[in-house]
Predict the 3D structure of the following.
Amino acid sequence: MSEGARNTRRFFGASSSGAAGSGGAGSASNRDGSGIGAAASRSSDVNTGILDENVLALVFRSINFDPKALCTVARVSRRLRAVAERVLWRELCISRAPRMVSSLTGAPAAGVAGNPPPGRIVGGWPALAKLLLFCCGAASASVPGHFTGVSRFSKTSGRSFLTRRCRGDLLYVSDPCEHAVPGADDDVGAYRGVFRGFMRSRTRACLVGRRVALETRVRCPYCGARVWSMVAAGLVPRSAWKRLGAYEGRLEYYVCVSGHLHGNCWLARLTSSDGDHDGGGGGGDDSEDEDDEEEDASTEGGSDDGHAAN
Amino acid sequence: MEVDKGKGEAEETRKVAEADRDTVTLKSSDGKLFEVSKEAAARLSTVLAGMIAGGSIDDNGTDLKQIGSEALENVVDYCNKHANSIPSAALISSSISFNTAPFKEPEEWERKFVDRLSHDALFDLVEAANFLGMERLLDVTCHKISEMMKGKSPDQIREVFNIKNDYTKEELEEIRQELAWAFYDD
């Protein structure tokens, strides 16, 4: 089933289920400040319409939840920011990475009629949206972060970042985003990821058990929370270097208290520019599992560019 | 059937109604009656299609308590224009599989249709279209609103939609930095 169908069903779900009033009445109560009735208050309280949660969701759906427009709208007022954080960022995440979101939230697969949207997510929807769409760069190599077009997140990659005893955790990690560094022979690969249910993960239990101190100088680029260095904690398995095709030891990664991962490594520059790191490095003991679900999280070219980027 | 026609009801309705009499009557929250082609209503609104199929259409006017007369008039107007303007093969097939189709740019007449609406009327129409499950009308109206926001700064959006800035200066700066990431393009 397509995403379009899923979205449609969700938006219409409330209003067509008998209590059609929920569309009108419910939204009226959402209207900022004006605790007065619905339609009647319209004329006096101009343009409350755009502040309506349903209307906003529909408007942003029509521009495929364009992240730039969303960032802008959240700066307009507290009310708009609240709606963005509760609904719009979530819908953006679902539109870009439906299976990943359902896997992270434990919610039933998107696309099945009647399923309510997932409620909360650790670290918040804005942080997850940024994680899907923003490469963290590499501060240590003076590589700035940047907005990304298409990123691929996978659980297989995630597994290679987990030590043997933490393999039960579910972690999505992106392919490394490669950056040339002036004056350096090698490229920097920046990657990012997110744990499911980090609070109850083995990784967190290990970090807490080993009394690993939180970093003082690094913060999570996605939610701003404090982070642990997995290198300092001694929790980086060899499979991580192999997976990335990185030089051994020249890798760092951090996990924040909300379970967002970010890091970078030095990659041997390949002769062919489109070389595939996985092919050389990760193939051996880390073969693809049959049930692995790769997930593209992308800004989805077509309609996105068409409506929003200009 | 006696119908107290809504004031701005379009010419087209009459023609359609006289041609086949195959119409349904809708009643707004404030008690005004509107007549609309059954075929167009069923094709453009999933909720009306359900009501028609389920036989819950009232000949004396099906109550739509959530929709005011101005919005309902626009809904009916849209249905009639849609029914009359372009029953091209492409459009019909696209409306069948609409849920799965990518967004399609509004047609010229659809643009004109939403351009003439005031902000309030536009928002009311979005809600009415949402309530009635009118995919295409929703897309067209929401697209209009998104165009009103497109490329605008937060200040300009406040101006266009008459929204008060309730952030403090410090909060505004903080959130500006927090949400700048989407603009750091490659």
About this structure: Chain B has one domain: 11-179. The beta strands of chain B are 23-27, 33-37, 62-63.
